[in-house]
Each structure stands twice: as C-alpha cells, then as structure tokens.
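ugh ok fine here u go
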Amino acid sequence: MLEIGGLKASDVVQVRFSNLNDGVRAVAEGKVDSSISALGIGLVEEVNAMELIRFISLPNTEQANKVLARYGAGIVKSDPTAGVKGDTHVIGYPLELVSSTKVSEKTVYTMVKAWWDNLAELQTLHPLFKKWTKEHQALTNFTVPYHPGAIKFYKEVGVWTAKQEARSKEICS
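structure:
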C-alpha cells in the first residue's frame, strides 16, 4: 500500500503489533494513526463505534494494479460497510482456506471439493462468498504454496494449468 502511494517503509513511523486486532484497536485508542484491516469484520464495527474510522481509497490505476499483482492481490471496489464512505478502492484477495502442511492430502482435497461442489449454497450465506468464484480458486499469482491436496483436486477438475505449476515451482524453490 505504501508503494502504491509512492512511499517507503522508512517514510513512516512503524508500530508493530502481534496481531491485526491490536493494531486496529490502537487506532481507536489514539496510539497509531492507521492500521491494516479487513472490510466487514466485527472488530471494525466495534472500533468504528468507539471512534469513526475510514478506509482509505487506493488509486485504481494500471500502475497500482501492477504493484499488487506481485502480491496476489488487486484493487476492488468495496461493498458498503463500516468505515467506507462512497466509492472506496481497497486491496482485495479472494477468499482462502489456510492449513498446515501437516494436514493430510485427503483432508484438504475433501475440503476443497466440498467448497467447489457447494459454492452456490455458500454464496447465499455471506456476501464475501459472492466474490469467490470457481475461476478464483486456482490463482496464477499466488504467493503462498497450494497444498498438494488442493492441487490434486484442481488438476482433476481441469483448472490447474502449466502456469500454476510453474508458479508453484518458482515460489517453492
């Protein structure tokens, strides 16, 4: 986000927190001027009730999107939620499942398959699921390796391509 704005980490005073929640609460407590957060999470609603907050809109430009593409993100227009006033462009990531490498291939395969097979139902449960499409499940600009169980499933349904395979080898080497 700093890079998009033409800044470097040395241009700001950094305050480190051990987790997202503490960083966001520190904004309302006046300990910091800003923090990274996610849209629509309960904590943002809580903090906004203590101190009105605003998400800062990022420039939705070709250059900004080139920077974000390196990190597996892109700029998306946010949905109305606490801290959002009007059109606000924020960094967006597709939804993701995160697991340990110790989780079995069979377990991850089964979870990904269930998500894939039941996507239409999931999309009725929460607005964020509407942004999660089958096309978003096997990204090519990922920065964290896919679990072997997920790769096996995506290969079976034909969405794991040579581009994903090359990216996987690149980040795992």
